[in-house]
Amino acid sequence: MVTPLLNGILITSRNATYEEKTKAAQLELKKRLEKQNLELLDNRAFLGNLFKSISHVVMHFKSIRDKNNAIIDFEILFVNDKINPITSDIPSEIKNKKTSEIFPGIFNDGVFENLVQAIETQTPITYEVPYYENGYEQWFKATAIKLGDGVTVTTVDITEEKKKSDQLIQLNERLSVQNTIFADAERLAATGSYIWDIDDDVSELSDNYYRLLGCEPNEFKLSFKTYRSFIHPDDLQEYDKKGLEIAKNKRIEEHTYRIITKQGNVKYLKTNGQFIKKNNKTVVVGVVQDVTDVVEFENKLKQSNDNLKFQNTFLEDAEVLGKMGSFRVNTTNNSSEISDNIYRMLDCKPHEFAPTPKAYFTFVHPDDLSNFKKNINKILVSKTFKPFRCRIITKNETVKYFKFTGHFDTYNEDEYLFGLIQDVTDDIKAEAFLKLKNRELTRSNAELESFNRVASHDLQEPLRKLQLFVSRIEDREGDQLSEKGTVYFGKIKNAVTRMQALISNLLTYSRIDSTKKDFEKVNLNQTLDKVKDDLADRIKEANAFIIADKLPKIKGVVFQVEQLFTNILSNALKYKSTNKAPKVQIVYKKVSASELPKHIIKESKKYHRISFIDNGIGFDSKHSKKIFEVFQRLHQKTEYSGTGIGLAICEKIVENHNGYIFAKGEVGVGSEFVVYFPA
To answer: Where is the PAC domain (predicted)?
Structure first.
């Protein structure tokens, strides 16, 4: 360095190398700072443009701490323009102000705590917060990131997303409720739903579908093969055929089939569905319903209808056979219906005329019309149907007698008169014929009584006189008679005796019916003892013996039962074997009606069976009915005495006691007479 002096110059020098290097370094630093400033300005411009262009709100807050170093507030250092549309704040006006002043709400909604947590934990915090302005709700999602001793908050408006999210949540809730309701509905309606991927043979079943199969939900992995194992064997062929048709035509028609549940119960399932696209695949969605009760009800209803049709057919045939018809009158609206056979009974074709009272009256006999109308009016007023008859003139002018019966009933709040009309013309004629026959029977009975009087006195009187005179002649002139005369007188005596027995038996036979009302308790053991006592001489003479079980008591007529026992035992003694002593065994047993011969009508549940078994000459069983006919004999009167009425009397006595008698025999072995009395 040259410095002027008074008398010259002062030259000083120093080493400037380091200084020059420093200057150069400073210059370089300056250039770098200027470059960095330019870059910073560019970055600030870029950030400014970026903050202007993005839709997010970006803010930076500096912590304000108390003396304990706890964050109590924030200072707003930066906020971009996106804050204005939301809060109407201008960024430059709120810069460097406290958040408690500008955004006091953050201290109440948890935002302040989130900001503090982001700084203290140095962990980014994301949260959602609502913002209310003029009654309008907005939702924001914010991310708080620690920067220095502050926090940078980036906020994005998620109001629309929140709405969609809320709608989705509500939709899911509704779907959950609907699924619950649907599951309950499936249980209640006994239905199930399914999705079937035909190509992959993968199926999804609702829980209740599994239950319909008798399984727990998701108890097994479903496929066509596993489900097929539930199909009823008798429905497998049809089920497979339907499956092929569905796969081929891509169309499902409603059909019903049977399954066998896990527990072995048979159910009817009705199914339907449709093809839809799911995840770019064609699948079948459908429902099944347990219609077992419906099918069984329909089957019962069909059977009931079939039975009803049968009954209607039977009723129609019964009406024709019984010469009757039915009618129904709705007394509420005065409508009426009559069965087809009523038309036929009137010699008309079914439905030939309208069934109205006016139409009926045209068929009533003029002499009976007044009473017919009176009866109808009385029935309608009293609501009581008393049967009545009247004459009808049919379309073919045939006079018939109709009998009317009926009753009132209510159906669907309407009153009805239900009734029957019967053609009793034949009954009327039969009654008239019966009255005629009763008069003839009365006359016949009177004649029979007259005959009884004649037989008991007038016919027997000549026989008694004949017997008396023959006896006197025999006593006085017997010694003077020739041998032939004696024989002739013997024949006369036998003939008279036989005639007296015949008349006596005829009287007994004719009087049996008139004593029906004299029934009383009869001890058959006592009856047998009396008869044995009466026949004691004959029993002793024949050297016979009688063995009897203990016999019961019955309701009957004493003398008739004695006559029955007498006749049967007398026959056993009369028709005894010539080479062995007579033996009669009387066997008793109480039997049910089912043990009697099938061809007879049983009027009692129990019967006393009394069998008279002898070892006499017997008879051929082909005559077992003939021997009970009047005057029927299997032997000549010269071989065995008798009138041929004894067994006929036995049969009539047993019938008079509502019993039955049968006989069987074997020639040379013996006979058996079986008597049944009601128990």
So the answer is: 253-303
What is the rounded CA–CA span in Å between residue 47 and residue 391?
A: 122
Pairing outcome for strands 660-666 and 670-678: antiparallel
- The answer to whether the beta carbons of residues 206 and 193 sit under 8 Å apart is yes
- Going by C-alpha positions, the residue among 411, 450, 211 that lies closest to residue 328 is 411
Rounded to whole angstroms, the Cα distance separating 5 from 150 reads: 64
Residue 615 one-letter amino acid: N
Distance CA 36, CA 653 (A): 153
Q: Are 61 and 151 in contact (CB under 8 A)?
A: yes
pLDDT at residue number 602: 82
Q: Residue 190: CB partners within 8 Å, gap ≥ 6? A: 212, 289, 290
The Cα 179–Cα 310 span in angstroms is: 49
How many C-beta neighbours within 10 Å does residue 125 have?
Answer: 20
Dihedral (CA of 454, 460, 462, 465) sign? negative
| Single-letter amino acid, residue 533 | D
572-614 confidence digits (pLDDT tens):
998 888 888 899 999 999 999 989 988 788 888 999 999 999 9
Q: Compute the Cα dihedral for 557, 563, 565, 568 and give only its sign.
A: negative
Q: Give all strands of the β-sheet with 399-411 in edge-to-edge order.
A: 335-338, 324-330, 414-423, 399-411, 388-393
pLDDT at 454: 59
CA contacts within 13 A on the Cβ side of 335: 3
Residues 183, 184, 185: CA angle, nearest 5 degrees: 90
Counting Cα atoms < 13 Å in the Cβ hemisphere of 39 gives 6
- Tell me how far apart the alpha carbons of residues 383 and 118 are, in angstroms, rounded to a whole number: 98
Phi, psi dihedrals of residue 91, rounded to the nearest 5°: -50, -45
Q: How far apart are CA 608 and CA 563, in angstroms?
A: 18
What is residue 453's predicted lDDT score, i.e. its pLDDT?
62
CA 426, 432, 435, 440 dihedral sign is negative
Residue in 504, 500, 568, 502 with CA at minimum distance from that of residue 535: 568
Q: In the prediction, which pLDDT does 391 show?
A: 94
| pTM (2 d.p.) | 0.37
| Distance, C-alpha 484 to centroid of its chain | 94
**Distances in Å between the alpha carbon of 261 and those of 216, 255, 361, 511?**
12, 19, 66, 78
In whole angstroms, give the CA distance from residue 442 to residue 282: 99
The contacts of residue 106 (CB under 8 Å, 6+ apart) are 99, 112, 115
Residue 59 β-bridge partners: 79, 153
Which CA distances in Å does 555 have to 627, 652, 656? 26, 16, 11
pLDDT at 372: 94
Per-residue confidence (pLDDT) for residue 413, from 0 to 100: 86
Dihedral angle, C-alpha 111, 112, 116, 117, nearest 10 °: -30
Ranges under pLDDT 70 in the chain? 1-3, 5-6, 10, 12-16, 36-55, 172-173, 175-189, 314, 445-460, 498-517, 630-644
pLDDT digits (tens, 9 = 90+) for 478-492: 777 788 877 777 777
Give kind and range of the element (H or E) at residue 401: strand 399-411
First to last CA, the chain: 175
Helices and strands (H, E) in the chain, number of each type: 20, 24
Q: How many CA atoms within 13 Å lie on the side-chain side of 429?
A: 7
